[in-house]
């Protein structure tokens, strides 16, 4: 195996003969690069050989599911990855065009312990990546990714004979059958928004089989993403979903990201409900059916989980944990929690509701089942029954991958010092600074601000929540977090702001 480099340029002989792999593409819980600029196809092949080497190193069976999302280059990336896996002696099961959760399901259904899903998720065109796992339903975290990085960058990959490739035909039907097990007792009118991403080939059909009346929105596969990026956490997609609900009189809109492992929700009035609030609604509903359940939520999520009287009455316990699908998935499995909820729209359901991994269509089914169990109540009414809390969009200022963690350390230290000194924010005393994942600063009235590093892009992540009002929520960002981060020259423009 030729040792990868990170200084190669396209349109050179070296670029065609040497793997290009930028180290920053190995992130906390998956791998993502800008194709051609940060990794070439030979680099992807080296990743495949490295992954095969790691699977053998940990003593796992050499059987792996591969799939790819709908991008102009994803099939080529998967084929390069497959070539590396075959070099490393893996038995590869290719399920074709797929959602990430479809690949995770295939691990269970095809008795394959390993998975490598080629996807850039909701990242813009030009990005590619791989979500990997070797112990269902878990995906790699920092330890596994760190070791894989060492293997690939140091050219430790070991070529072995015996690799095989099997194409699994018709697996789309098997997956849709699995995720459409919810059966509604009444028709619910649903906008299925797919942003022209991969979910368009799966979600509308699955929702129909559940018994929903489906209004399709941007379901045609188009890897140019002509209207907006398929990311149900982005304002642009939410606005389009809201408009469609108002036009059609739908009961709700369900939006899916580029690889279908996340779900966003807009209610019957055209108002978005962030996933942490949907999780709280689901927690209320499910804890009545499954008393004394445990739920896991990420540190970007609302503080209402800790104070909600319905959860308390049902004996539910909530554990806050690190943001990131790999972290929440792992913690949900470790605690045997009924479900895990992440503000970005990842939902994890353990038995009897699911297999433990994140699946946007399964999450959509859970929302529809909740509505079905509450006849006569609209989604907006279920939301209105929650205590008041005003939570911001997730906002992400640019910060280079090579710099973001060092910058975050300084920001965390600054907030920690303020808390230790008995400081306050906008007239409210700081009662706690949680540093398990960046820094989440809690104020005496229950409001909080969060700054952390993005795990998959060159960005920081900012979320604020007020227990007072929407205006106060905006003030927490505009008068506290934004000016504090503006002091750091390394912090750039935001992707969106409240």
Automatic annotation (TrEMBL):
Xref: SUPFAM superfamilies: Phosphoglucomutase, C-terminal domain (SSF55957), Phosphoglucomutase, first 3 domains (SSF53738)
UniProt entry keywords in alphabetical sequence: Isomerase, Magnesium, Metal-binding, Phosphoprotein
Keyword Magnesium: yes
Residue ranges of domain Alpha-D-phosphohexomutase C-terminal in the record: 421-480
GO molecular function, one term: phosphoglucomutase activity
Cofactor: Mg(2+)
Alpha-D-phosphohexomutase alpha/beta/alpha domain span: 25-154, 171-270, 276-387
Pfam family name, one: PGM_PMM_II
Gene Ontology annotations of biological process type: carbohydrate metabolic process
EC number(s) on file: 5.4.2.2, 5.4.2.8
Taxonomy, superkingdom: Bacteria
CDD domains: PMM_PGM (cd03089)
Family assignment from sequence similarity: Belongs to the phosphohexose mutase family.
Protein's name in the database: Phosphomannomutase/phosphoglucomutase
Lineage, highest ranks first: Bacteria, Pseudomonadati, Pseudomonadota, Alphaproteobacteria, Caulobacterales
């Amino acid at each position: 195996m030729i040792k990868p480099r990170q200084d190669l340029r396209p349109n050179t002989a070296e670029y065609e003969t040497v793997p290009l792999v930028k180290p920053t593409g190995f992130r906390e819980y998956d791998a993502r690069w800008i194709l051609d600029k940060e990794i070439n196809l030979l680099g992807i092949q080296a990743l495949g050989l490295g992954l095969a080497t790691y699977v053998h190193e940990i003593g796992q069976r050499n059987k792996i599911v591969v799939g790819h999302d709908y991008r102009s280059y994803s099939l080529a990336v998967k084929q390069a990855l497959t070539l590396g896996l075959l070099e490393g002696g893996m038995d590869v099961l290719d399920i074709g065009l797929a959602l990430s959760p479809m690949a995770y399901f295939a691990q269970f259904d095809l008795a394959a312990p390993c998975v490598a899903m080629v996807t850039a998720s909701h990242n813009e065109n030009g990005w590619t990546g791989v979500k990997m796992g070797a112990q269902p339903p878990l995906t790699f975290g920092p330890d596994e990714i760190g070791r894989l990085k060492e293997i690939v960058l140091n050219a430790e990959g070991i070529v072995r004979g015996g690799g095989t490739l099997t194409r699994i035909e018709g697996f789309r039907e098997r997956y849709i059958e699995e995720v459409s097990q919810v059966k509604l007792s009444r028709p619910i009118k649903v906008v299925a928004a797919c942003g022209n991403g991969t979910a368009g080939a799966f979600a509308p059909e699955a929702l129909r089989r559940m018994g929903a009346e489906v209004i399709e929105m941007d379901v045609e596969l188009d890897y140019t993403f002509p209207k907006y990026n398929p990311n149900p956490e982005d304002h642009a997609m939410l606005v389009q979903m809201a408009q469609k609900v108002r036009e059609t009189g739908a009961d709700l809109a369900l939006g899916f990201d580029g690889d279908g492992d996340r779900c966003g929700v807009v209610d019957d009035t055209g108002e978005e409900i962030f996933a942490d609030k949907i999780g709280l609604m689901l927690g209320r509903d499910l804890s009545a059916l499954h008393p004394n359940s445990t739920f896991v939520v990420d540190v970007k999520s609302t503080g209402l989980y800790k104070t909600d009287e319905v959860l308390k009455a049902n004996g539910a316990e909530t554990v806050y944990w690190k943001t990131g699908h790999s972290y929440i998935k792992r913690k949900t499995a470790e605690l045997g929690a009924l479900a895990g909820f992440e503000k970005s729209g990842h939902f994890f359901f353990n038995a009897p509701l699911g297999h433990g991994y994140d699946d946007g269509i399964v999450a959509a089914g859970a929302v529809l089942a909740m509505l079905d169990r509450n006849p006569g109540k609209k989604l907006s009414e279920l939301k209105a029954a929650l205590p008041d809390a005003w939570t911001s969009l997730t906002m992400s200022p640019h910060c280079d991958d090579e710099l973001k963690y060092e910058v975050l350390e300084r920001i965390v230290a600054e907030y920690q010092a303020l808390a230790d000194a008995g400081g306050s924010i906008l007239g409210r005393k700081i009662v706690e600074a949680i540093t398990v994942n960046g820094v989440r600063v809690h104020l005496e009235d229950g409001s909080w601000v969060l700054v952390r590093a993005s795990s998959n892009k060159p960005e920081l992540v900012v979320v604020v929540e007020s227990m007072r009002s929407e205006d106060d929520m905006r003030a927490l960002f505009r008068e506290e977090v934004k000016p504090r981060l503006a002091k750091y020259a390394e912090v750039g423009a935001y992707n969106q702001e409240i």
